Here is the input.
Amino acid sequence: MSAATILEEEQKHALHSREFGFWIYLMTDAVIFALLFASYAVLAKNSAAGPTSKELFDLGRTSVETGLLLVSSLTFGMASIALMHDQKGRVVRWLIVTLLLGLAFLGMELSEFSGMIDKGAGPEVSGFLSAFFTLVGTHGLHVALGSLGIVVMIAQVLTKGLTAPVRSRLTRLGLFWHFLDIVWIGIFSVVYLPGVL
Amino acid sequence: MLGRLTIEALPFYSWVAMGGAAVTVGGGIAVFLLITWLRAWKVLWTDWLTSVDHKKIGIMYVVLALVMLVRGFVDALMMRAQQAFSLNTEGYLPPEHFEQIFSSHGTIMIFFVAMPFLTGLINIIVPQQIGARDVAFPFLNSVSLWMTAAGAGLVLISLVVGKFSQAGWTGYPPYSGVEYSPGVGVDYWLWALITSGVGSTLSGINFIVTIVKNRCPGMTFMRMPMFTWTSLCASILIAFAFPALTVVAGQLMLDRTLGFHFFTNGDGGNMMMFANLLWIWGHPEVYILVLPAFGIFSEVVATFSRKRLFGYTSLVYATACIALLSFTVWLHHFFTMGSSADVNAIFGIATMIIAVPTGVKIFDWLFTMYKGRIEFHPSMVYTIGFMVTFVIGGVTGVLLAIPPADYLMHNSTFLVAHFHNMLIPGALFGYFAGLNYWFPKALGFKLDTKWGIRSFWCWIIGFYLAFMPLYVLGFKGMSRRMEHYADPSWQPYLIVAGIGALFVLCGIACIAIQLYVSAKTWGSARDITGDPWNGRTLEWATSSPPAAYNFAVLPEVTDIDAFHDMKILGQAYQTPQHYEDIVMPKNTWVGLALGALAFGLGFAFVWHIWWLVALCFVLSLVCVAIRASDDNSDFVLPAAEVARIERERLAEISPADLHDMRDFVPRGVASGAPLTGTV
Amino acid sequence: MNHSADRSQSTYLTGFVLAVLLTAIPFALVWGGLLVGPAVYAVIAVAAVLQVIVHLVFFLHIDLKSTPVENLFFLVFAAVLIFIMVGGSLWIMMDLHHRMQ
Here is the structure.
């Protein structure tokens, strides 16, 4: 075997390992979110002297945020399909659409947060708000990192082309992005919907 | 500019604190000068600090653990000395100092002795046991190491700049909250936990992938050596339990720095949730520390009884059971918090159930020894000492698992005696056994057995003297963590415990002497064959120390105890038909840089130096980005070079060096089918 | 996660439609006030669990045949642990809450 082929073999194995390792990482991240959910559930009614969830949450905004993330999952799926068909241009275009949706979600979340803080409902007001900002903020932070990842991957697709490592990274980023959407299902089902009841 | 860091952070307020700082700084300077004097900086940098070789990373982990063991033991000695004398007096340690000492003792021993020790041993051995050339992610391995080292660095520097936490190693709020502990101590503790916790999580994921994906041909799950099995289970526990630590430490940090109300007394906080979340991590952590040691005992007991491990399958299932059950018992750490009888009873019963698979293991080891030709090598002696002593800890553990009994013993020295009785024989003796057993594999020469046996006797006598009195004191009602006391009937026990600590000091000294003596006479104790103990598992098939690639040709396995069979069948030490090119990872400075940045980030956060926090964070992202876009991190070791290394190795081995395997050849029908007809 | 065969456009679209439905049901119930009492929480919970499964199957392409066994193992293991940790925490904390009143 030549050095080039043996490197290629090794790389294939390494990429498989990375995909499996990333899967385990996602599971550990899921445990982090699960415990943040548990903390929120314990503290949800502890609004102390501050406002309650019913006074603060706006289902209209939440439903738009939910829509943005859900559509972004679909558009990332389109990028994955384009990747399968080796269509570099389409991969980049769908990634840009996904990125824009992600950024729009982040913008809405930031405006929600700043609106709450302006209303005197910042995380330092009560146990409920601490848990709310930590849980939703951690998810937002993940979306921000995912968006950064999309930017990096767009750059890599454009400069390196659809090489094996780039493909593998895109697949993993896709897993991450879909995973964040699953966490969001938990957030609107545990935080927002019961919060306005 | 420097946040809350002022000149007052330096320890000029007390002689004891200054002494600690002087030793820390002096030790650092001494190491620096020694390396400079040996002109070893370049070697250190290229061969060690930037290395991604799992064996070297493992050795560095173990060195870190041994250094921190000394530091953590000094804390223990100071506590024992204080309590031996402080009947109705203040003793020599003021309360705030005593509190820092017991907090740092627990933190160091768990996070910076036990964790790096077991991670180091797993690193050195597991890839070789499964016939692999490296871990799955060599670079990530280096990141893990330096993150752990960064955490240890934060604990060490807290002696010099500022103070350490006074809230105990578990840091329960509200005392660890900003209201009652406004200083930097708890922040140091939190950042040490978070940085090393991230390192451990990454290690856990790395080992899981390594064991699942990198096994050599023929090595099915049920043919993996026991240490690999326990490492796999411990790694799964690490990956799934450490997130809980990250969450709870992050929440307490938010409480302290940004005024959140997770665990505060008022404003809707719930401090009981801290205990709940902490022990969701904390209980599996106990098994993270103990399971790899169980694996070491299994290897040692089989090798030095010259028998196949008894009940391999039952040991595997027992390990898996313990791993899962360890997630279902965390409430027994806070039975007294006020849960109803139903809740306490369920968790109490779950706790007692864990004793069953653990008992299975003890019997398996005993049956392995039964009718074996036992050789009293230091690692075997540690193993026997473990079995005898650990059972006592198990019994007191089942006692504590009964909620009404726990109400009496909770927070007493009985509890302190119990968990030391689990962790010293159960974990530390295992790591020492592993140190004696695998030292030649890692460094190429054997450790002196005389000093090894001496260290064992000092440790076990010291252990009994130090902790049996604490059981009694617990029954007499002594609370843990007392800086002074008024009951004169306690003092004799505390003096005995202090003498026990002195014996342990001798035990540590013996280990130091053992290392020194062995290093001095290493030439005569060289391990030429790579198999000094007539071992059974694949790590003994490589040379000692192994070549960077471990195996020139990946072995094929048909049963457990693969190397033992190879020796009987005459397949060991053979020259293969031809050698192949081998892909190796390149060394990189990025792991070290990330560790340094994590240290900087933690330090800056502790002192509220926000610009430095931002700088370290951005630089970390830059490092990750540099590494992530590097598609050229491997190189090829040509077959000719591999052939040269292997030829040199085999040429050194003469037939006289090899173990006589004639006694081990199976005879008769009862010996099993696979090997009949080969003689 | 390498099974390109079923990763067609229609899979994603099916998943998307199901997800939209399962999101719309609880939102509509809560918004319109169509149900009251514990039944609302039950519907929200069931819809959430179903939607998580939809995402796993249609977006993350989990299925019992082509997904590697080890990936499935860790998924199930994580689910069990999350159940133990979250369920246990809530049980413990609610019990304490109840007894403090």
